[in-house]
Amino acid sequence: MISEDIPITQWKKHFMELLNGKEERILVQDSKTGIVGREREAEIRDEEVGKQEGRLKRGKAPGRDGLVNEGWIFGTDGMIEILSELMNDVWTGKGFPREWRVGQICPIHKKGSKKK
Description:
The chain is mainly alpha-helical. The protein has helices at about 10-20, 45-55, 70-75, 75-90, and strands at about 25-30, 35-40. Strands 1-2 form a two-stranded antiparallel sheet. Strand 1 (about 25-30) and strand 2 form a beta hairpin.
């Protein structure tokens, strides 16, 4: 049964217990820009994004945006630069695309009782 009526607090509690997680955020204010964001360890470089892009597997199902991995694998260097810039904006606390706020979780039964 799928329900969109589960409150976010219940999801958070479930996954924190499931993954033995803890929530910890360190926020700092950039002295130049005044923007408050996560403490910055290092900028995400184009080379790092390119390396991870090279590890993508072909033939995987697309996400909500309809993009398949082959689009990134055979894309241009310009795409990697744009993606690096976007990731750095997210990392520094400048925000992220609205579409990233939506997700879908589908539990897949593996073994044991389906009632658990």
